[in-house]
Design a protein that fits this description.
Elements lengths: L2 E2 L3 E4 L6 H8 L2 H4 L13 H13 L6 E7 L4 E10 L8 E7 L8 H15 L4 E7 L3 H9 L3 E6 L7 E7 H10 L2
Antiparallel strand pairs: 1-2, 2-3, 3-4, 4-5, 6-8, 7-8
Helix pairs in contact: 1-3
Length: 180
């Protein structure tokens, strides 16, 4: 996948970017928001290369895990994803993102997620879900800016309770029609 927005390119991670991926995923302030249980920091470049391979293996359009590249300077600011949720009973798909702290607060997560939502709905997904730790206010703010519906707290897919937000294809089409 290669999707261009005003400031970003959403595309597969490349092995020459392994040091940047390591820099992102070896930071507690990033990884504490990912998955269940104790945060698992990335340890070394070998693990970063393995992760890039795993991202490529998990790509099956419209699903995947992609780098968010800032087009102004070619720096990968983070990752955006569309994946089947863990323990999904009906193939529920999750959108997610994580960015390097030097890229927080610039609207990149919202811009990248908006492009990936469009990609997912163009690929035939009927609904896309976003979940976060219940105290991850920054991600929840992105979900709200995207127009996702807040559906409260769930314990369906992860061991810990998660804030649940949903965007349907119908709502996405309505937002596109009204320009909001």
């Amino acid at each position: 996948m290669h999707v261009v927005t005003d400031r970003l390119l959403i595309r597969p991670w490349r092995h020459e970017e392994a040091p940047r991926l390591l820099d992102i995923l070896s930071r507690l302030e990033v990884v504490k928001w990912l998955g269940d249980g104790e945060p698992k920091l990335m340890r070394d470049l070998e693990e970063a290369h393995e992760r890039i391979d795993r991202y490529a293996e998990r790509s099956a359009p419209p699903l995947g895990m992609w780098a968010i590249e800032r087009t102004a300077d070619g720096v990968s600011v983070g990752t955006v994803l569309l994946l089947t949720l863990p323990n999904a009973e009906h193939g529920e798909v999750e959108i997610g993102w994580h960015l390097h702290p030097d890229s927080w607060g610039h609207g990149y997560a919202t811009e990248a997620a908006r492009a990936v939502l469009a990609h997912g709905f163009a690929g035939g997904l009927p609904e896309i879900i976003a979940v976060s730790h219940t105290d991850n206010r920054a991600s929840q703010a992105v979900m709200r800016r995207l127009g996702m519906e807040d559906r409260g707290v769930t314990d369906k897919w992860y061991a810990d309770p998660s804030a649940l937000f949903v965007m349907t294809a119908e709502r996405w089409a309505e937002l596109a029609r009204t320009g909001t």
